Amino acid sequence: MPPSPEVTAVEIARLAGVGRAAVSNWRKRHADFPQPVGGSEASPTFALPQIEEWLRRQGKIAELPLLERCRQQLDALRDPVGNPGAPLLPAGAFLLLLHRAPQRWAALAGEPDTRLALALPRAVAEVVDAELGGAALALLEPPTLYGSTQLELCRLLAELAQEQGAAAAYESLLATSRQSGQLPPEAAALLVALAGAPSSVLDPSCGLGAVLLAAPADAVRYGQERDPATAGAALLRLALRAPADAQRPLPLYLAVGDALRADADPTLLADAVLCRPPYNERDWGHEELRYDPRWLFDQTPPRAEPELAWLLHCLAHTRPGGLTALLLPPTVASRRSGRRLRAELLRTGALRAVLALPAGAAPPYGVPLHLWLLRRPDPQEPSPVRQLLLLDATATQPEQFDWPTLHRTVLDGWQDFDGGAEVAQRPGVYRVLDSIELLDDDTDLSPARHLPPPTAAGGASALAGLRGRLSELLASLAESDQLLPTVTEVADGPAVPMTTIGELARSGALEVFSSGSGPALRPLAEDPSATPVLTDQDLVTGRRPSAALAQSPDQAEASALLARPGDVLVPALGGGSALVVHPGDPADGAALGPRLHLLRPDPALLDPEFLAGRLRSTAGARSASSHASTTSRLDVRRVQVPRLPLTAQRELGEAFGRIAAFAVGLRQAEELGRQLAQGLTDGLADGGLTVG
Fold first, then answer.
1. What is the pLDDT of residue 629?
2. Which 3 state secondary structure label does DSSP give 608?
3. What pLDDT sits at residue 575?
């Protein structure tokens, strides 16, 4: 059976909320510090149970979060030379049992380990087979015997699922695995929205299944992924999102393999093929696939054009008249090696639109990707009008990346064009060209090259209005003596005792809720009467809710987590932000979007403004944050809070509220100043304004 979990000095430091140097000092100064059980002299490992016991005995850890305990068990099950994502598959399969057959776990949970070690994996395998079929059983390969570590993990997962729900629990596990390069849900939702309401969707490079998750619930979903563990995790994500009473087997079909070299189903035709393929792969199989029947229009993709090979693969799997949408690097629109194939896509009318997206829409996040939209020609229908929509969505983006604006710009332009409506030219944003106008020596399809320059926004009167609003705001901010609290040094005295949000939750002083991956969303502009959704970006940037629930208001009240006055909202990523909901605020009654925590304090025990001020502080979040390569994740239950009487809390809370209002004013002044400076620059540069 697997040994008990082991942790390194870095992981001990994360558990205790200290630096690695502190752990090194503990080893030197405390004779009772646990001895290493593995690793090397330079990087020893320690038994997790011994470390937890020692930290609690020393008062250096208040609690070990449930998710962290699950992660430690997963680490213990990970094979050092195997696929690092492999332990997530049996964990997800067990969560599927909890989701679709909870009565089976209820019947087995009290059994002794000797019987459970055989009975539980058998039950999991039976549920996987019944829900997803034999092919999924072969893909997931659930173990036939559970060891002590696996059984302990299952018990922890049962607690986590009871706390968060099975689907959200699995999303939390995947978040700790830090898989990079995955398509964000907002980009996946945009691809699906462009396809309308397809009855079948294929993603031949599906990763963790973001596109398939965004597809309509009643659509048949197909996917293919090179990495077996990633494919299995995607399948489990989809199955866990299905309603508990959905018909069996679920219409989910995921295969393992390189879709170019080993097409899982050459005869498959889907209503929509939506994909972000691999980029810049020179060894994609050009020689062996030279005469492949998927190359439509008798055009073999050049060796230097792997992305166009993926495009033709996707188009070959699209039913006639169906939509193909791919996120591609901008160089695909202009590389000379692909000009003949681009020209053929224009001549046949297959290529319908090239849309330039701003950097940050999808990985790699520093590159402004292009979105290519194609419809496979139908030989039974009249030849399509050979026109191309060119759209540059970067021109409509504010300084902060804004998904609702991007979603609206792209959908409005595409739906008008695809529906046959005459699309009026919008300088700098979009225009429609006859394909023959693009057939030159380069056949460069980059939207920016063919769009007329944008006109300057507003005029002298609009800029004068901005100037006046900015002057008023700056004048009010200058009166800092009235806006900000007066402070003095604290006299020496005993240290204020501390507690954690987790301990406050256990004592009943507040409730803690987490939104996980959040509910299904749509743009708020589509239905202003829908329940608004506050996203983590809305909270960080201080803007109003930017999205809406995809479900009806009645369904939202039954299932969504809605903010109410007195709640404190905190982003799960980044830290340093916290919002107190007041009556009539834009956040009052809004649903929580992805990656948000909601704290609901008892006002008779805990002041919301005091709590929010502590969460905004550097010290408050430092000990509760874990860091990935570019982001930090806040474990809100580990945030430390001073133990103060309610009167002292309210006094500090009033000061924190005034400081927060001052910060909001500064942010508004910054945005107004940016708009004014850009408007003046554009007006003078374009000749629409003059000095004087």
1. 39
2. helix
3. 64
Q: Are residues 105 and 228 in the same domain?
A: no
Do residues 118 and 240 share a domain?
Answer: no
Coil, strand or helix at 616? helix
Domain count for the chain, please give it. 4
**In this structure, is residue 469 part of a structural domain?**
no
H-type helices in 260-317, by residue range? 306-316
**How high is the pLDDT of residue 580?**
93
Least confident of 229-243, 521-535, 575-589: 521-535
Residue 630 pLDDT level (bands cut at 50, 70, 90): very low
Structure tokens at 295: 């190359």
- Count each helix (H run) and each strand (E run) in the chain, helices first: 25, 24
Same domain for 421 and 563? no
Which residues have a Cβ under 8 Å from the Cβ of 586 and sit 6 or more positions away?
532, 534, 544, 545
Domain membership of residue 40 as a residue range? 1-61
Q: Which region holds residue 59: left if phi is over 0, alpha if psi is between -120 and 50, else beta?
A: left
76 within a domain of the structure (yes/no): no
What is the amino acid identity at position 198? Answer: P
* 172 and 201 housed in the same domain: no
Q: What is the pLDDT of residue 179?
A: 64
Range name among 82-86, 281-285, 514-518 with the lowest pLDDT average: 514-518
**CA gap 497, 491 in Å, rounded:** 16
Structure tokens at 21: 């140097």
pLDDT value of residue 628? 44
Is 358 in the same domain as 444? yes
Provide CB contacts within 8 A for 452, sequence distance 6+.
425, 427, 428, 431
Cα gap 124→252, rounded to integer Å: 18
462 falls within a domain: no
Cβ-proximal residues to 43 (8 Å cutoff; 6+ apart), any chain: 8, 9
The token pair that represents 211 in the structure block? 């596109």
DSSP 267: T
- Could you read off the pLDDT of 390-404 as tens digits, one per residue? 999 887 766 556 788
